[in-house]
Each structure stands twice: as C-alpha cells, then as structure tokens.
Amino acid sequence: QKEVEQDPGPLSVPEGAIVSLNCTYSNSAFQYFMWYRQYSRKGPELLMYTYSSGNKEDGRFTAQVDKSSKYISLFIRDSQPSDSATYLCAMSPPGSARQLTFGSGTQLTVLP
Amino acid sequence: GAVVSQHPSWVICKSGTSVKIECRSLDFQATTMFWYRQFPKQSLMLMATSNEGSKATYEQGVEKDKFLINHASLTLSTLTVTSAHPEDSSFYICSAPGQGANNEQFFGPGTRLTVL
C-alpha cells in the first residue's frame, strides 16, 4: 500500500463547476499537508499549505484536512480553463518535515 | 515566493555520455536541496537530498555512482547523470525548502532529459 493515495483521474469538468480533489494517507505522523499544481512540462507550484487539521481558504481554493480519517481535500470553486493542470497532494511529518511524500497526481481539465 | 531555477530546461544526449543539470536558488540560500525524477503521468519520486558541505543522501534504489550530486554553494546544486542510457530519460526536478517555519518547498521548472 502506498503511503499516499490519489485518484489519477483524468477528471473533466465544465467551466464554472466546483472541483473536488482528494488524497488519503496511511502515515499518522504526517502533520504538514500541501497541494501543488503542475502544468505540463513545468515544475510544481505550491497552491495551498495546511498544518494539522482544519480548513484553509484562498480565493477560489479551499483545502481541508481530516486527520482522524487521514483524508485531505482541495476544492476549486468557479473552475476556469486555466485551472487545467495536474494537482499533486504532498505531506510530511515533523522532524523530517522537509522531505515530502507526494500523491500520484490528478489530471484536471476544465472545459470552456 | 522564492525562486528556483534549473538549467538546462531540456537536453538530448547520446547513450553513454554524461549530462549535468544545475539547480539554483535565486533569491535565498539553501543548505538543502532535493532532486526528484518524474516519469510521464506519474508523480515525483525523490532521488536524493543534496547537502551543502557534505555528501548527498540517496533514496533506496538510486545509484549514487550514476547520479552524482554536488552542492557547491548555498545557492547551487548540480546533478550529473553519468553514462546515460535511454531508461534515464525523464523529467528531473529540483526543489529547495523555504526560509520560514512552514515546510514549503519551491520547485524549479524541471529539466527534460532524452537519451537516444
């Protein structure tokens, strides 16, 4: 079993839709949770960062962490074609916190 | 946010040659940098941790004699793929941790290596 599981998709939605992306994990030591966006042939770009459980909102993006269920989510409201990319969840424990464990990524296409 | 650059952005080489990829932190210092490899439609796999002033730490299954890492200064780490083979063709990405208390990592734009 992988430490971090993420549905690879692909996921296609119409413009304006609400998108829900999810990851589950098995390592209860993970405390730092991140979402990265990666456009084709580019390096990942940090979108959202959350420490421990809770919600965090930034514009059209909302990140949720449920440590009791070992489940994290990223919601994108009013999705735009420019949101089309691969979304990677990443997480790390304290201590070796700078080494990230990535999910496999979900490929999202927002259709105009 | 902090900026990390990589050079070259893409390279094509013949089998058996060596290729050097540079990773630079442009506006901050990084005592640690990370090197990842990403195959098409797959996630990032950590290859090694580059440490300024000491030897790199390699992940299990990564050949340290094939993937030479040198952290020459607080802003530069290099990855040299020695005696490259077609199976080494991949997207290589470096990252550096941010300076704050958070655990953000800032990624370079990646280098696409194609070995013929």
Keywords:
A: mainly beta, globular, B: mainly beta, 7-stranded mixed β-sheet
Mean pLDDT of chain A: 91
Query: Helix/strand-derived class of chain A?
Result: mainly beta
How many DSSP-defined strands of chain B?
A: 11
Instruction: List the total number of helices of chain A.
Output: 0
In the predicted model, the low-confidence regions of chain A spanning at least 5 consecutive residues are none
Order of helices and strands of chain B: EEEEEEEEEEE
Q: Tell me the span between the first and last alpha carbons of chain B.
A: 37 Å
Shape of chain A: globular
* Biggest sheet statistics of chain A: 6 strands, mixed
Percent strand of chain B equals over 45%
Question: Distance between termini of chain A?
Answer: 37 Å
Helix content of chain B: under 10%
Largest sheet of chain B: 7 strands, mixed
Count of individual helical segments of chain B = 0
- What is the radius of gyration of chain A computed over CA atoms, rounded to a whole number of angstroms? 13 Å
User: What share of residues are in beta strands of chain A?
Assistant: over 45%
Helix percentage of chain A:
under 10%
The helix-and-strand class of chain B reads: mainly beta
Report mean pLDDT of chain B, rounded to a whole number: 91
Oligomerization state of this entry?
heterodimer
